[in-house]
Amino acid sequence: MPEQFAKTRISPSDLTFGWSGCKRCFYMRYAYGVSHQGPFPGIVMSLSSRQEQWYKTKHSHDFSPTLPSGVVHSTGKMLESTPIVVNGEVTPFTLGGKYDFLMAYDNGTYGVIDTKVVSQGGKAEFYWPQLAAYDYILSNPKKDEPRKCETLGLLVWEIAEASQHSADFYNVGFNAEYEPVEVNPKKFEGFIAEVVTLLSGDMPVAGEKCNNCEYFDKRTTLDL
Ligand code: SF4
User: Fold this and answer.
1) What is the pTM of this model?
2) Residue 224: is its pLDDT beyond 80?
3) What is the SS3 assignment for 195?
4) Residues framing ligand 1 (Cβ under 6 A)
5) Is the pLDDT of residue 38 over 80?
6) pLDDT tens, 85-111?
7) What is the distance in A from the centroid of ligand 1 to the CA of 23?
8) Which ligand 1 atom sits nearest the alpha carbon of residue 214?
9) 24 CA distance to ligand 1 middle (Å)
10) How far apart are alpha carbons 98 and 191 in whole angstroms?
11) Assigned domain for 11 exists
12) Which end of the chain has a smaller Cβ tally under 10 Å, C or N?
């Protein structure tokens, strides 16, 4: 374990792909600030930004009639939590990141919605740690008053069809679906305790899903 961590603010988005993959890479990112940023498809970024523009001024029932009545409170705001407490001990780690949509419901509660453009829906469980992390931050904010989340969910756009409009213009259609994500602060406390415990220990060994470390080890033995 390093004497001082390079990064102590845990990003909610790292708790999905980052945490579900090899824990060694996750550890190196926070302990030493070393991470590999793979290419992110520009088309997804462009579609996400259109999604956000479209829903910015909408009522909660435009996202889903199943949501409580309310409006968009704010979008893309950076938040940070108070230090995470594990087994009664204050740790150096916090949670911090930007949500897509914070909803303010008429009954005084809140909701967080994250937008996703995907090839296939059904991702609520996979993205639960990210959404639950926003809930944790809103309930334990470094600044401002705590806010209680009544709902968490994904607004998913899934490609449904493509058709030709004219010789040089094509339309692409999306199915839009709201996928509710479990609101369970107790479960998240257990989850984040596991994350912080891993970061507070020794560097984990490489997992089995990726062979990059093995590749680099072999490569450095070559005298090229
Ligand atoms: S095998 Fe190495 S490069 Fe691949 S995810 Fe694990 S630590 Fe990262």
Assistant:
1) 0.91
2) no
3) helix
4) 21-22, 24-25, 206-207, 210, 212-213
5) no
6) 999 999 999 999 999 999 999 999 999
7) 8
8) 1
9) 6
10) 20
11) no
12) C
